[in-house]
Amino acid sequence: MDPIFQKYSGSGFPVGRKHRAPSLRQIILISACCTFHIASFAQHRMVTGKITSDGYPLAGANIVLKGTTTGTVSDTNGEFSINLYDSLETIVVSFVGFTTETIDCAGRSIVDVAMRVDPTQLAEIVITALGLEKERDKVGSSTVRIAGESVVKSGEPTLINGLSGKSSGLLISRTSGDPGSGSYIQIRGQGSISASVQPLIVVDGVPVYNSNIGSYGGGVVQQSRLNDLNPHDIESIEVVKGASASALWGTRAGNGVIVIKTKKGSGLANKLSVSYSGTYGVDRILARHPLQRTWGQGISGYYYTGVFSNGAGWPYSYGDKIANRSGEDDIVVSDPNDPDYIGYFLTSQGKKVYPIVETTFDPNAPPNGGKNSVATFDPYEALFDGGHTLDQSLSISGGSRDNSYYFSIADLNQEGLAKANSNYRRTSVRINSNRQFNDWIGIGSTLFFSKITSDRLQMGNNLSGIFLGGLRTSPDWDNEKGYEGYYVPPSGSFNPNHQLSYRNQIGMALNPGYDNPLWTMYNIKNESDVNRFIGTAQLDVNPLQWLNVTLRTGVDHYSEGRSEISPVGTAGFFKGNLSLESIQETQFNLDGFFQGHFRIFNESKLTVLMGINGQQRTFKNVGGSIQDFIVKSNPPLSLDNATTDNATPYNRLVQQRSAAFYSMLDIDYRNQLFLNVTGRAENSSVFNYEDNPTFFYPSITVNWHVLKSLGIEGKFMTFAKLRAGYGVVSTIPEPYQLTTYYDPSFYLDGWTAGLSANAQTYGGGYEQSALQGNPDLKPEMKKELELGIDLRFLNDRLDLGATYFTNKVSDLIIPVAVAGSTGFNSKTANAASIQNQGVELDMSFNVLNIGGWAIDLFGNWTQIKNRVTDLGGKPAVTVFGKGYTQTVVKGYPMGIIYGVGFARTPEGDLVLGNGFPKAADESTVLGNTNPDWRGGLGSRIKWRNMSFSFLFEHSHGGQIWGGTRGALINFGTHADTDREVTIPASEVGSYRNYQGYTVGSYGYPISPDGSYTVRGYIHDFGGGPVLIDETWWQTLGGGFGAQMESFIESAEWTKLRELAISYSLNTVAFRQKTKLNSMEFGISGRNLFLWTDFKGNDPETNLSGPSNARGVDYFNNPATKSLMFTIKVNY
Predict the structure, then answer these.
(1) Is 508 domain-assigned?
(2) Cys-Cys crosslink for 1109: which of 865, 884, 957, 980, Cβ 3.0 to 4.6 Å?
(3) Is the pLDDT of residue 16 over 70?
(4) What is the residue range of 356's domain?
(5) Sign (positive or negative) of CA dihedral 296, 297, 301, 302
(6) What is the mean pLDDT of residues 665-688?
(7) Res. 24: pLDDT tops 70
(8) How far is CA 626 from the centre of its chain?
């Protein structure tokens, strides 16, 4: 209806109704009114403009005059024109999946509108586990959709970490700041004790790998294969959290599903679209371990290195006070005629390093010996100079009415924080295409290839870890004076391949104890080369109006070559070590299903789906390692560089197949009540072929649109949905656990296909494993109930969602002890169970949308309680995983910190001995690594062409073991040991240290007035004041003591995850002059600020990477904060 008639339809005129012929009086009156309205029409004017999304034209967007139904739609180029009137100068622009924009056009003739994806990422359309689209309001389970644009704008070059803080129920923890490092992903709590808790990843309807294969605890930080994907290719990411939503994936959905949809291009614009994005970023260390710079290497206040005693010397920094030295040159032993002469070190730069004269330990003599320098050195400055990232992506898309295509090429080049040998490069190509031949048949395909190369630094519980050697180094030792060269003894011979460090001050020892971190950084190489291919093909046939048939197939394959070389002179491998290996994983997936759509009861719909699925997965790992190089200097990268008795080959092949039938029944009753029932019957080659067991995974969801059913929808509360769901999913055992292994008893004959008949130790052949196979193993089954409510208010401006869930995971696989008479130590069995329950809240609020301003607020909150309910009758079980050990205790959550604490009375008071606490006799639960709750809160503010956004993430509660702090206290380099107390002569006998000595009897340096100024402080544990000094820190009070309670710290934190500001050029004048659609400039930050009480690196860090064991900080490589500069060009 024309707005003029709409405006006056209630004025008494018979608009749109049958009536008698008008009288002359009526004709005159109507004529007068028409004359008046013609004058009014003379006041109208036309506004033109263009609707875009991310620089691309958006065809089919609705543009209407506010308060009316008069409007138009944008054409294939996104352009529109509409008439305005004096009283109607505001337009409303809407499009499914985007935030509705309300724009005041007063005084404007050109209005360009950049549409924004709903900032909550809760779009109108969601992707189900099978990759099928469905309206979000019709889904009966909790799902969260994260736009691909949101991940790109997060500033994270890797896909996984860009999801942090954006969804309830989803836990993402980046365990290291190393380039390309893997991350821990958990959906709705711990789902297993011994198996992985990582969710299934589905890309374009096909499962893909997110493997993280490698050493945990030491070695290097390995990559997550999900990071092989290019984030710029992603259209959306669906977090499918509940069992009721993921049951159609059966045995692979035990930990939830993350469904990724890639961009497909669009034929709506009917022309070529080109987009370029370039980002340059700089990385810095997020948080540092506090170190002391006051006290030098030594013991009891005296400078001491041990170099004259045994070459590889004293590791502790409890020496003299550096500031009290003279500042003159150090006194060294350089004269070959000196009876104390032991030689020197010749660096690779030709510099000679002589040993420094040590103290005599005379309390009345200067405590510094020949060490006069007051210079101190920061290990962070020696190792790190900041990281750099260059991320570039170019995409071309387009098509016509019947086809579409999307092509991209991208390159990510990331240099880590360290000065050398820490890098990650990913180059990828994607081609997606779709073709609709006619009304009933269409095809689609995706092809993706990426090549990833990287070099990773040593970390963690590892003698070559850069932090283990770097942070333990005494503050008065300069690691940069030289780290490799020759040790020259008094005989004058040159001994190559030696390294210099604070424990090996003239390189005398070939094995330095642990490595100078610069030796690690420059000499130890750990390289990886990955080639990844993912391909999918889909055929859609619609032979009848009500019938759809889909055939979808996909393959994911990657091969990785790894090499690690530790040259001669490396701690732990002082004769040299080389490892070469090849890893290949391939999975093939085939789905065939049909959907029948029927109308029932006139106003209701019925959808029936039936399908089959087949999968095959193959893992190959071939490699070998050698020690004791034949060629020691500049060794070749060859496994022939050692004798056969110093070589260890290995070869592993793992295959598994599965077949399944699945079905779905979906009922839509009057668009108000929705019922969805699914079932999947599946068998797997993992289980006994003779029995060929089939496992069934059902689910049911129901949701009710309350307001629509009751007919009470209003402007304040516009939508209300109640939903409930129940589902069953599982995790299957790893292959070959049903049978008993026979392992090679001893390797002897090198690289042949079998073993020598003369194998030593066991008389040849193979030996039976101590772990008994269990043919009765079953899947770990999860049964989950979910209840929820979704509400929208204020014309859908405020969107709230709340979900309660409870799940029980039974038949968990754990090791169970067996009688020694069986010939085994243990066997795996389905003997444990875990329960999770939690609450999830999601919110989005369009706070303001007027006058060119748009302000959106979004957030999420998650609380999950986890408890181990059964351990096969045992109170506690120790589980040995891939590189980690964790203890699981019945009645406590998974993820507890279990160890020895202080002995306490029943009332909780410390049990003391000589005034100091005692260690408990038994281990107990000391902490819980799980947070009490987590939440994210963010906003996006837009004014005309400028936008600003931020995201905060908070983790409340939880603990972490600060093992790095404990070790550094033991070695005397942590800032907690930088304390000093002066005890007057009259009180010398009043305080005793942990060993029972007074300061006078312990041998500390004495002042002229008879007082003692010692490193430490006076403290009262409840039994009277005692002296806390090195005797406490190096024993029970340090990280190597019998207790670990002192180092359980709060893991609570708040981070500014994302901060971004951008400006877009997309006016008509700009487009006409440049022939571009738009250009955008942006600055963004990632993890710019951290608020925490944790005294370590980063409370999200974890020694064992993405494994199930959590909350361990032990010389982990540092986390990063980043600042990025971005330019985007759209043509």
Answers:
(1) yes
(2) 884
(3) no
(4) 294-375+474-515
(5) negative
(6) 94
(7) no
(8) 34
Could you tell me which of 741, 750, 765 has the C-alpha nearest to residue 624?
750
Percent of the chain with pLDDT over 90: 65
Compute how many other C-beta atoms are within 10 angstroms of the C-beta atom of residue 864: 23
Q: End of a domain among 515, 546, 576?
A: 515
- Which residues fall within 8 angstroms of residue 440, CB to CB, at 6 or more apart? 541, 542, 543
Q: Which residues pair with 856 in a beta bridge?
A: 846, 940
Please check whether residue 457 lies inside any domain of the structure: no
The number of beta carbons lying within 10 Å of the beta carbon of residue 632 is: 15
d(CA 224, CA 196): 13
Which tokens hold the place of 523? 């000499």
Residue 964 and residue 1096 in contact, taking contact as beta carbons nearer than 8 Å: yes
Using the structure block, give the residue that is written with the tokens 């991320």.
Answer: 391
Nearest to 1002 by CA among 299, 355, 455: 299
Sign of the dihedral defined by the CA atoms of residues 207, 208, 209, 210, in that order? negative
CA gap 49, 63 in Å, rounded: 11
pTM for the full predicted model: 0.86
The answer to whether 769 touches 741, Cβ cutoff 8 Å, is yes
| Cα-to-chain-centroid distance, residue 142 | 22
pLDDT for 756-794, tens place per residue?
333 433 444 677 888 888 888 999 999 999 999 999 999
- The answer to whether residue 48 sits within a structural domain is yes
Contact 472, 297 (CB under 8 A): no
Nearest CA among 229, 265, 271 for reference residue 393: 229
Q: What local confidence, expressed as pLDDT, does residue 118 receive?
A: 59
pLDDT score at 129: 66
3-state secondary structure at position 137: helix
Helix (H) or strand (E) segment spanning residue 25: helix 24-41
The CA-atom distances, in angstroms, between 451 and each of 408, 409, 428, 456 are 14, 12, 6, 16
* Count of all residues that appear for the chain in the document: 1131
Give every CB contact of residue 581 below 8 A, 6+ residues apart in sequence.
561, 562, 621, 622, 623, 624
Q: End of a domain among 94, 114, 134?
A: 114
How many angstroms separate the CA atoms of 842 and 804, rounded? 12
Q: Which residues make beta-bridge pairs with 844? A: 799, 858
CA atoms within 13 A on the CB side of 80: 25
Q: Among 184, 215, 177, 209, which residue's Cα sits nearest to residue 526? A: 215
Task: Locate all alpha helices (DSSP H) within 249-320, ordered by sequence.
Answer: 307-310
* CATH code, 104: 2.60.40.1120
For residues 724 and 655, give the distance between their C-alpha atoms in angstroms, rounded to a whole number.
38
Structure tokens of 272?
């070529």
- One-character DSSP codes across 164-223: TTSSTTEEEEE---STTB-EEEEESS---SSS--PPEEEETTEEE-----S-SSEEEPPB
What's the number of domains the chain is made of?
Answer: 2
Residue 81 located in a structural domain: yes
List, in order, residues 6 or more apart from 369 with CB less than 8 Å away: 302, 303, 304, 331, 356, 357, 358, 359, 360
> Are 780 and 734 spatial neighbours (Cβ–Cβ below 8 Å)?
no
Return all residues near 1001 (Cβ < 8 A) that are at least 6 apart.
none
